[in-house]
Each structure stands twice: as C-alpha cells, then as structure tokens.
Amino acid sequence: MKDLICVSYNVKGLNSPIKRKKVLNQLKNFKCSIAMLQETHLSEKEHGKLRREWVEQQYSSTYQDGRKRGVVILVSRSTYFHHEKTFADREGRYVMVIGSVGGSKITLLNLYAPNEDCPQFFKNIASLIAEQSEGMILVGGDFNCTLKAAVDRLPARNGPKSKKSCSLNTMIKELGLVDVWRQLHPREKDFTFYSHVHRSHSRLDMFLMPRTDLYRARQCSIEAITISDHAPVCLNLRMNPNNHFKYWRANVSILNNETIRQELQKSLTEYIQFNDNNEVSPSIMWESAKSYLRGNIIAISSRLKKERLAEQIELENKIKKLEKVYQVTKDTGTLNSLKEQRQKLDDLLTYKAEGQLRFANQKYYQYGNRASRLLAFQLRKEQSSRVVHKIKCPNSGKIVCQPKEVAKAFSLYYQELYKEEKVPNKIEKIEQFLNLINLSELSQEEAELITNPITSEEIKNSIGKLKNNKSPGVDGLPGEYYKFFEKELTPVLCKVYNYALFKGDPPQSWSEAIISVIHKESKDPTLCMSYRPISLLCVDLKILTAIIANRIQKHIKKLVKPDQTGFISRRQGSDNVRRALNLQIMAQERDTSSMFLSLDAEKAFDRVDWDFLQQTLRHMGFNETFILWVQTLYKNPRSRVRVNGHCSDFFSLGRGTRQGEVLSPSLFALSIEPLAELIRSNPLIQGIRDETNTQHKLSLFADDILLFLENPVTSVPALLSNLEDYGTVSGYKINTNKSEALMIVGSWPTQLDHLVSFRHSKQGFRYLGVIITPKTNQLLALNYDRLFGKIRGDLDRWNLLPLTFMGRIECIRMNILPRLLFLFQNLPILIPQSTFKLLESITSKFIWQNKRPRVRLKILMSGKEKGGLKLPNFRMYYWAAQLKSMAAWIIRDPEMQWVAMEEYSLPGISLRSLPFLNPQSWKRIKLTNPWVKHTVKIWNQVLKILKGNVTMSRAIPISGNIEFLPSLSDRSFERWAEKGLITVNQLFEKNTFKSFAQLRAKYALPPGDHYRYLQLRDYITKHKDWDKVRREPLGLENHFIKLLEKSGTLKNQVSLIYQKLLIDMSDNTYHIKQQWEMELNITLDDVTWESVCCSCHRGVGSQMWKEFDWKVKLRFFRTPLKTFLSKSSVCDKCWRGCGFVGDQTHIFWDCVYIQQYWMDVKNVIQNILSVNLPMDPLIFLLDIFPDGFSYEQHFLLHLLLMTARKLITIHWLKPETPTVAQWLLKTRHVYTMERITAQLQLKVPTFEKKWRLIIKYLERTLKP
C-alpha cells in the first residue's frame, strides 16, 4: 500500500471561496491523503462544500454561536478509508474519527486548542483518547502552546511553563505519545507561526503519535507560511501492513461451556489411555498429547464458528421464503414471523460486536474505581515503554528502526551474550578454583531428599499456585487449562517429569523459549544491553521448576550464608540496608579509612557458565542425580526474541540462567556463593569490624553486591584479584565504569587511581533503591526530598486523569503508598511531622480535586468496619515500619545480622526488654547507636499518643529486666522463661495479679520460687504507675506480647502493626449513625452500624457499585437540606414538589412521590425471593435484614435494593420518579456484567448458584 501524506494546517478562516480553492489546491500539490484543518470558521453545511475535487470524505466540528473555530478532517479519493465512528464537540474544538486504512485500524484526531491558559482542554482530550481510540493514533492540529519554550520559541523563553503546556506535556507522557517532528529533528529549530504583535516565532502546530508507531514516520516537514498565518505541517506515514508474529494461544473462555469442557476432558482422557502404552517415551507421548489438545481446541472453536454461520444461512433462507409468502398473502401472522426472523438474524450478525462492547463495558464495570482509567493511561504508557522504536545494531553499530530489524539486532546481541566462552582446560581450572574455597555442603540424606521422585501432591500444589491471565510458552497452553484438567493431567505429568529427569530425555517444547525485553530504568534505550530478557516458557516446565525450586529452598540457607538475601525465604533486602547503616556508624566510631563499594555486574544471570554451575553444585553436596536434572532442564535450549510484535529466528544458548522461571534465582544464588566465600576467606580483604571485632565484608541481593572495606589501599587490589579469578571460571563480569565507591571514613586513596576505574561518589550512591550517603544526616534530604518531589509531580499530573472518587483513593493506595513504604522500611530516620501534614494536604487536594472535602480525611483512613475506605495513613505506616525493627529484636532471627550488631551496642541489656523500660532508664544506659535510639523514640512517641503506660509496659520480659535487679543475678527467672512464663502480662488475669498457686499450676514452677514471686509482685505492685499497669494492654502492646510469648516471623509485620494502630487511633462515623437515628427515629447499636458499614464492600465485584453503596450510607450526596445549610439562599425543600424539607431520609424514603416506587420494588422482590418483606427503611436504605434469610437471598436482596437506590440518584434533582421497569433494566445490566466477569474468571458455576433465584425472573420479564 502507498504511503499516507497527512497535513495539519491552521487555515485562519475558509469563508472566502477563493481562499478555499487556494487551500484545496495547496493540499492537492502536497499530494495530501488526509488533511486536518483548523479555524475553518464554517458552519456544518458549509463544511460540506469542502467535499469536492480530490476530497472524498469530510468529518467536522462546528462552533454553534458564530463564525469562528471549526475543525475538519478531509480524506482524499485515493485513500481507501473505511469510517466507523466519529466523536466531535459542540465548540468546534476537535473532531476524532475512527476507521481503517488498508485493513489497519487508525484513529484520527484534529484539534484546535484554546488560546487561554486552560489545562482542562487537554485533560478532556486525554480522556477521549484513552477511552475511545483504537489502533494507531494520529493527533494533529494547532495546540496553541509549545512543548518546550526554550527550543520551540524564538526568542526562547526559560521561565515557568503555562498550565496548558504542562497539561499537554502530561498528556503526551501518560499516553505514550511523541512529537513526530521533534523526534525526527531533535536538534533543529523551525516554527509554524509568527506573531507580529509579540515579534516572536513559535512551533504551535504538530503531529503526535504513539512511540510504538514512530517507525512508520518516514518524514515530517514544516512548510512555508503562505496562504494563512500558520505553516502547514506535512507527515509522510508508511502504512504497509505490519504483519506481527503471533503464537497460537488457547482460548480460555470456551472452558466456561460445560459441554465443551466435558468433551475436552473425555477426548484427553481417551487419548492418554490409548497412547500411554510404553511403546513411545512419556516425553514424546506428552508432546503429542499437547498437540492433540491444541487440535481439539482449534476444531471446537472452528465448529462453533461454523454453527453460527450455518444458523445465519438458515435464517436468511427462512426470511426469503417468508418474504415471498407475505408478498402473496399479506398475512399479519406471516409478517410477525418475518419480523421475528429478521430480529434473530440481526442479533446474530451483531453478536460479535455486541460481545466486544459488553466485555469492554465489563472492564469498566469491574475496575471502574480501581484506578481503571489511570490503568488505561498507564497501559498506553507501558506499551510505549515496551516498544523499542530504535536500537543500535551490535554488528554494524547503525541505528535501526524497522521492527524486523530491531528484532534481528536483539537476536544478534543475545546470540553473542549466550555463546559459551571457550576456555582451555576449563573443568580443571574450575576444580582448582573451587578446591581453594570451603563451601557448605548438603548431607547425603538432604541431597537424596531433593532428588526424590516428583509426587502428585507436589504437582497439584504447584498447579494451584498458577496465576491466571499469564502468557504461555510456545505450546500456547496457559495455566487455566492445567487448573481445569488437573485431575486428568496430574498422573501424566508425574510420569513425564520423573521420566524426563531420571532419563535425561525432556519434551522438545521445554527447550524452546520466547524472549521478551524490558527496558531498565535510566539506561540508554538505544543499547541492547539496557534491556532485561524475560523468557516465556511452557507452563508444564514452570510447574516442574517450581517444585524443584521449592525443594532447594528448604536447604538453601545451609549453603548460602546470610550475606545473600535475594530470593531466599525470610531474607529481605532491607536487612542489607540496615546492616550497612550500622556498619557505617561503627566505621566512623573506629575512625579507620573505610569504603562502601557497590559492584555493577554485567548481565550476571545471562553469563552464568553451566560447567561452573554444575561443578559448584557438586562441591555443595548435590548428588549426580540432581546434576542430571539441571542438565535435562538446560538440554539444547534455544530461544527467539519477540519485540514490537516481531520474532527473530531461533538461536542456541550456551550459558545463562533463564529469567522467567522460579528455579533460576536459586541456581544463581548458589553459583555466586563461591565468590562471596572467596571474599570472606581472603585475609587481605579487610572488612568493617563490629563491636565484637567481627569483620563484615559484603552483602548481596542476587547480583547486587555491596562491599564493606577497611584500608582500601590493601583491600581493593585483593578484591580485584578475587573478581578476576572468579570471572575467569564462571563468566561473571564486573562493569567497572558503573561500579561506585563511597568513602565513609577518610578521603579517597590516590594510590588506587591507577588500579581502578570505579566511580568515586562524594554524594552517595543508590543501593537496592536507597541512596547511601557519606553522612547519615544526609539520608532524609537525598531520599525523601526527592521522592516527595516526584509524588507531588505525579499527583499534579494525575489531576489530568478523569478518575472517580474511589479511583483517586486507589491511586494513592496502589502507587504512592508502596514508594513511601519502601523507604519507611529501609531507613530508620526521623521524618518531621510537618512532612506528614504536607503529604495529607496534597493527598486531600488530589482526592477532592481542590474542592472542599465532604468527608474528613481521618474517616477515609479508617477501616471499612468504621465507615472508612482504608485510605493509607502515611504517619501510621511510618510508625509501623519503624516498629518492625522492634519485632525483629524480639524474634531474634540469627539470619538478621544487624540485630546482633545492635544488641552488641548495649552490653548487658537485652534488646527485647529495651523498648518496654522506663525512658529514664534509657538515659542512664546512654544509647549510642542512633538506629536503636530512633526505634525506641518512635515507640515512646506512639505510646504517648495512645495514652499507654510509658513508665512500665506489661510487655516487658521478666528475665533480664534491669529495673528488676533480682532478674539480672538470679538465673531462676531464665528458667521461668524456658517454662513459658516470659512477660509481666502473664502475671495478670485481666486486671488482677495472679497468685503463686495459679502460676505454679500453669507453668510448673517449683515451690522454692515462692520468694521470687513475692519479690516480683512487690516490684510491680509498688510501682508508681501501678494503676496504669493493672489496665488491659493496648492492642499494639498485645501484638508485641504475643511475639514475646509465642515468637513468630517478620512476615507481614508492617501490616499487622498498622492494623493495631488503626484500631487504636482511627476515627469513627458514629456522628453519621446519629444523623440516621435522628431522621429515622430509631436507635442503632455500634455493632449494627459496623455491619452496615461493612455491607458496602460486599456482594457484587464492581468497585463502582461499592462506592455508590458507601456514598448512600455515609450520606455523601448533597440533599436540598445539606445545600441549604452551606448556602442559605438555596431552597431546602424537596425538588419533587411535596413541600417537605429534603433531608437524606426524605429524598430516599419518606417523600410521598417515592413511596409508590418502593412499594412496587418490594412486591417484585417478594416475588423473586419468595419472602415477606416489611416496609422498613432499615431494610431498604441500610440493608439491615431480618434473620432467616439464606446466603443467596441475602446477597440478591442487597443487590436489588442497591440498584433500586441507584435509580433514585439517577433521577437526582428531577421531578419525575424512577419506575420498576427502569430498575429491572438496571438490574439486568448488573446481571450481564457480573456474568461476563464470572466468565472471565472461569467461575460461572458459582455465579449461577448465587443468581439462580433471579435468572428465571429476568428471563421471563425482560428480553435479553
């Protein structure tokens, strides 16, 4: 197909026939295919006059109140454009057309932006594009602002951008669009408009298109300013069909059909029974079975299509016959039959389009308030970021843009990367290297446990953990099929797995992978090495590798020391950061020249040498059977790169662990452990010493290595020697130019200048997402200040997005909270209260769109049972993250080395007891470790806010309590702890101090300990705050008491502590309950009100409906009375004309004009559910139902009443009242959306069970 020539042109009025002729001739000379004209100043009728000469189609938007504005899209006769949809505003500002050119879907948007500094215009345009556009997007027009005033204006402007320009830049960034002319002319300056008034040039006219399609742009030029005061902008687009490579993927939706599911089960079972006869290997049989299943799925899909086609032909024949009969008889019955058959045919022909529309509506229905529109923007942005629009070819060094050439460039790069390095006598060198290192080993029994035959139970557990909607491998079978046919497939997989592993004969599909590339943030996007390769593997292989990885994880801690925290159970990267911060303090106290060195490994996972890996496994005690397993999994592997929808040819792999399956991280951790052990055991490499004179040399998180070095002059050369030795045998390679060194004590040794090319950072460097600084007092500014700036910028940008109220809350929860929480957990530093007030302020402004809040922020932050929406409370999350360190002190996991280091900083005192001591004792102890001091300070601060007992907590352990001196010298109290009597809290029965007899009976204390009991009782009962000690502990205290008494893990500690804080400190909505009580003249207990609040979040899956239900029960809507109270000039009477005050209860229930509606609703519900329902507003408004309802009745009653309330808000401020017919149509819509949701989630049987009471009624009363 020939190229498209697109022209954007502000014509400054086309009222003159002569000027119209000039413009059309000029466009014809450009050989224009599609013209986007702005400021036509024409009416709708006059726009039609442009359809002449070379113009075939015309789509316009006209300003209704005068001869100004006006935009039009003209399509030439030679351009075969198939029109589908048009979107145009009434202000003559934009027109958007969706159609196709040569079979390629395209969206054309022509706009004329306002001259005023109004950012809302581009917000609306962004929403239109995100929600309605299809296929390739091309936006052209006069934007009336520049993107960058410094380069797009002459004279240049360096001042602040206008709001409109900021909004346009945000739209471009969020939608993944690019300015085509600037992309093709990055260093040039040219302009489309000259202002005689300001004597300035500007580039206001441009074309925007997605980065994903930028390769289509052959040329973009700015022509001369002639007929108008604007220059035409011409764009030459390559429109050759882009034949994307598509692997076949099984259609999951057919599994919702019970008949088809049974058919597939039967055929699969029969095939396996017939072919599993030991005549062929299980691997070949399994490959054939997958092929057979694929064939059946394709055949079924084809059959369904043919059945629909046959039905269509049958209906067409019936219509022809009925038409002939009716022409003769003119019979009314025949006419009705003819109409019926025509309707059936119309329904069938629109089935696909209707289905697509319903599924599109379902996505908005289900995720409407889960930041779905944000996700629509982010999806386009993500797609743009995944597309590689240009790349440097590794062979020629040239930049290539065409998708096939880009895929080939990546293929060449990975072929070289995965090529095995030929090293003479490699095995001997590997053995010599490993013999110098003392690696930990598995016992024979542990090694045999790992290589036991794969069991059916393991396969079932692994299948159960598969996630839906994940891309399959080359066989096209996603995880959903394994879940549905688990019973049939498990015994087959068990046989195949054990045969393949023990015989070394895997199925062919296990060796093939598709590589998708993901760009690494802040890396050069034109270099292949800046992308992370992710291998898409077959699901059956993923199931097996998950089983093997799970077995290794049970023993890996014995083989890999705690320095390595990446991808190992119960080890966290935050431990590395806390350890580094402690070592920094200790090094500064010792005042010895010390350095932190962050190593940047070049493609560490992809360079792992297989021979080295296998020899390492042998030295770690893995038996030869396991080595065979690894060889089987990596037998003759080959991959192909898929990028921009195109696939390269297959190429072989000679090294590397595939990123994309769960076994690779474990294998990599094992392969890099020899390097870690080599560094640990090298006496020339001096690590930073702790309080016990123990050296700490390194921390690892997978391939991210941070070294702690004393005396760098001697340590660094020894380190470089170790790295070289390890790299020679393993393939590991350090990128020295990107590795960074930070002197934390002393100055940079000049002796190293000729040895290393590490970057010497004076400000700090980033490690695991945290900026490590030379001075700890710089941590706040360099980490949080930057993040707060980004958050403020993001919230400003997201104001562009057309999000709902709850959608904005989801944005905070899903995007802002994780970024803050990451730093909260990694950095034990004090954040000023003013910072949290600022965060709350900008959050509130974002949620309420700079309007007055209708609900207090503290209520939104409350739990759902208290009427809140779980908006994150950043201050509480900060406290919870800081108090997680206290939980670590209590748990005392030996793997967390920083806990022992902080313990050593307090000689003679247990960290388990420290937080619960009187703060006066902290002063006597003289805490020197700033991180310990910070943690107890936060604990004390939280206790004061909660009004807890600061001087003595019931959580304090009895043994080792420095305030109870006998516990320090008498070992009997330690024996009490061994028997389970650990904390002071265990001495109480609610508010009463237990007797010795009670304690003796429960904990088996010896009689001789009675005196010790008296000592302890005397110490506690005579405490100055005895009355406070007697009180029940706070929920937060109870949490730590349970950890002390029953131990536990750090898993989910932040969430658990946050929940305790939320319970103790959050606001409630009892004032709203009182308003309902006053209007309804009733009394609601607190438990009932909490049930009402919780009911808002149950039932249907749609977040929009949950938001609506919450708004009704929290009295969110502005009734006439509420409006009158804030603005006395407004009438407070009901708008329906009844003459009564329009409060919440009146509008929804008491109004005489709405009572008949509720009576009709009640009668229908009683008919559907077969129940007697009293006319009680507690039922109809607050969902407080009488006892005796089944689960299905309760669910449907809640849903039916919620949709009935929705009809009232749809008629808000309207005198007419809703009808039962309208209510049933709305219910039908909810039913349709919920059914489609169930189909997508493969939960149709559950859906039908819940909806069975209403399905027949809807089918009987409403036509689908």
Write a structural description.
This protein has 1264 residues and is of the alpha+beta class. The chain has six domains: 4-237, Endonuclease/exonuclease/phosphatase (Deoxyribonuclease I, Chain A), CATH 3.60.10.10; 252-368; 426-772, no CATH class; 782-872, no CATH class; 898-1065, no CATH class; 1069-1262, no CATH class. The strands form eight sheets. Strands 20, 24, 25, 26, 27, 28 and 29 form a seven-stranded mixed sheet that branches. A six-stranded mixed sheet has the order 3-4-2-1-15-14. The longest helix is centred in the N-terminal third of the chain and has 48 residues, at 282-329. The two termini are 43 Å apart.
Main traits of this protein?
Deoxyribonuclease I, Chain A; alpha+beta; 7-stranded mixed sheet; 49 helices; single chain; 6-stranded mixed sheet; 6 domains; 1264 residues; globular
Short description:
The protein has 1264 residues and is an alpha+beta fold. Helix 1 links the parallel strand 1 (4-10) and strand 2 (34-38).
The low-confidence runs, each spanning 5 or more residues with pLDDT under 50, are: 350-360, 370-375
Gap between N and C termini, in Å?
Answer: 43 Å
In the residues, how many domains can be counted? 6
* Total helical segments: 49
Number of DSSP strands? 33
Mean pLDDT: 89
Helix content: 40-55%
Using only C-alpha atoms, the radius of gyration works out to: 36 Å
Note the beta-strand portion: 5-15%
Q: Major beta sheet, specifics?
A: 7 strands, mixed
Shape annotation = globular
